[in-house]
Amino acid sequence: MMPTYVYKCQRCGNQFEMAQPMTAQPLKVHESCGGEVRRMIQPAPVIFNGSGFYITDSRKSTDSPKSQPKDRKKSKAGPSSD
Predict the structure, then answer these.
(1) Is 75 helix (H, G, I), strand (E, B) or coil?
(2) Phi, psi values for residue 16, rounded to 5°
(3) Which residues, at least 6 apart from 40, have a Cβ–Cβ distance to it below 8 Å?
(4) What pTM, to 2 d.p., does this model score?
(5) CB–CB of 33/15 below 8 Å?
(6) Are residues 39 and 5 in contact, defined by beta-carbon separation less than 8 angstroms?
(7) What is the pLDDT of residue 26?
């Protein structure tokens, strides 16, 4: 599969895509109007496959008693009336 490059013509402003091998030289001339073309920089696509990409995949369940603080009620400031 060849990468697809996006070009923009400096004369007419037209943008177009061209599938080319990575070893091919960039296009220089727009075929329609003869204007100079420049290859545009495009962000690489990111595909998340598999587990570990979501917040629910990396956390353990909070149902276990170990994940709850033991002294939650005793954390009040001030004197204790025990």
Answers:
(1) helix
(2) -150, 160
(3) 5, 6, 7, 8, 15
(4) 0.53
(5) no
(6) yes
(7) 94
Give the strands of the sheet with 4-9, arranged side by side: 15-19, 4-9, 37-40
Q: Is residue 16 part of a domain?
A: yes
Give me the residue label for tokens 């001339």.
29
Assign residue 35 the CATH number of its domain: 2.20.28
Cα–Cα distance, 58 to 66 (Å, whole number): 17
pLDDT digits (tens, 9 = 90+) for 57-75: 555 556 555 555 555 555 5
Tell me how far apart the alpha carbons of residues 75 and 68 are, in angstroms, rounded to a whole number. Answer: 14
Q: Which residue is it, tokens 């923009």? A: 8
Question: Does 15 map to a domain?
Answer: yes
pLDDT tens-digit series, residues 11-32: 999 999 999 999 999 999 999 9
The boundaries of the domain holding residue 29 are 1-43
The CA-to-CA distance between both ends of the chain, in Å, stands at 75
